[in-house]
Amino acid sequence: TVKVEINGTAVEVPKGTRILDAAKKVGVKIPALCVHPDLEPWAACGLCIVKVEGSPKLPRACATEVVDGAKYITHDPELNEVRRTTVEMMLANHPNECLTCGRSGTCELQTMAANFGIREIPFDSRIPEIARDESTPSLVLDPRKCISCGRCVLVCQQMQDVWALEFLNRGDETRMMPSGGALLNESPCIKCGQCSAHCPVGAIYEKDETKRLLEAIRDPDKHVAVQIAPAVRVALGEAFDLPAGEITTGKIYAALRRLGVDAVFDTNFAADLTIMEEGTELVERLTKGNGEIPLITSCCPSWVDYMEKYYDDMIPHFSTAKSPMMMQGVLTKTYYAESKGLSSKEIFSAAIMPCTAKKFECSRDVNMFASGEQDVDVSLTTRELARMIKSSGIDFHSLSDEDADAPIGAYTGAGTIFGATGGVMEAALRTAHYLVTGNEHAGITFEDVRGMDGVRSAEVQVGDTTLRVAIAHGIANVRDLMNQLREAKAAGQEPPFHFIEVMACRGGCISGGGQPYATSSDETREQRIAGIYKDDEKSEFRCSHHNPFIKKVYDDFLGAPNGKKAHELLHTHYTP
Ligand code: HC0
Ligand code: SF4
């Protein structure tokens, strides 16, 4: 360890600790805009300079390791003045559009300006005229608002390994954009939205589609059905100052009804359905040689996009099962519509997702129109739902819990854990044993597939087979796994795994690009994941095949899992 002083307070920290973190330990917050706990520090914004007693240097606290015996001064009038000037310069290069900006109230630059009490900007304004990029269905890039902190570029390159964004231009004119000034939809972007979740200001954000849902609600000719994704229930509360991980499912259902929607469904129901379809697919591939092993999950649209772009040789390995969101959408416009005597045209189906890529998935190909109409008309992020609730004057805290509507609303614990990394795998394992052997597995939980390691693997005995499974989250963790598969294939060896789960975002959907702005650190992720497993534990049923409404939908409507009708409505295909 190393002993240092921060503003006169002694503190002992492990060797290699950075000044910023040592200061945190004694309750001192050094301002910074480029720093993010998910990313390597790279000293871009210059706000975190500190003084070292006896030295003329002003090291940047985010990137500089403490030196044994050093005495640091983090705040004094002189440092404050330098920082204030830095913020003023940023403000001169930033449009004064707080009142109409989606980040107003959560913007880190706004907070910084408020904290420094800046009342005027003593520099000439120099805002480049660069048009907004609205080329993808998911995100809007507004380079005028960019403060060149670099977080989006780092997250896109380091965490996601996509390299859709880079820095263009130099000095004050530096802006994050796709290479060569291309549009986002011409870049390799997979629409995961992690850039938007990490941007401290309003320079990258989800495409707001709240108006479309509100218009449908007001349209007397539309019957509006809304589904909510697994991960929404453990994060929406944060937008209402509840702790991360607090389960607010019943309040969300109630809020949707107050907004005027006609039917409230749960994507978790379709997650149970996905397990029946994907589980059956796995068993058929394993026992009947009906397709390639390993089977790879396909419910994450950013992962599908990435795979089609970079691993199209893996297409035969992909599960053809649609994502739960799309399954829920098609059932809403067929099975549910029929039960109400409505046509698919009369239904408006919306989804609330933790994800920006789901906006793109809704209309990605013809299979997403299996009901004859677009099965999910619009997909909104958790952040958009929070705004709708706030702007409608609904006091979220005072809502009482309500239930989802039948017959496609009830879910099991297996459906809910889809929201966490490893959850789809665990849900599948809970049912695979039953599908293979006809008997229930002795235990419900599979602790080996849980956790936050970027790549995890486990062996699970299912009947006579030792199933080898692997899980990856955060796209940067996928490459090794896919290369391992390619190598085994090329060498004619047995595949290293039977079943692989991939989620594009670190932690899984609980940390999707459309979730409430948090510091997005692993602490928040773990709190949300704990909420997901709590929801699982308190569920009456915990295996998808035990969901009585899943049995009913097969009996009444779909026939057998992987049967003809199920294939027509619930499966899809991929194109390189
Ligand atoms: Fe997910 Fe999903 S688990 S992708 O992370 O499979 O977005 O929450 O809704 O569709 O269920 C997201 C979350 C979903 C889907 C489900 C899957
Ligand atoms: Fe990169 Fe994801 Fe943002 Fe696209 S959405 S630019 S892939 S971080």
Automatic annotation (TrEMBL):
Residue ranges of every copy of the 2Fe-2S ferredoxin-type domain listed in the record: 1-78
Name of the protein: NADH-quinone oxidoreductase subunit G
Keywords recorded for this protein, A-Z: 2Fe-2S, 4Fe-4S, Iron, Iron-sulfur, Membrane, Metal-binding, NAD, Repeat, Translocase
Keyword 4Fe-4S: yes
GO molecular function: 2 iron, 2 sulfur cluster binding; 4 iron, 4 sulfur cluster binding; ferredoxin hydrogenase activity; iron ion binding
Assigned protein family: Belongs to the complex I 75 kDa subunit family.
Family matches, as CDD domains: fer2 (cd00207)
PANTHER family the UniProt entry points to: NITRATE, FORMATE, IRON DEHYDROGENASE
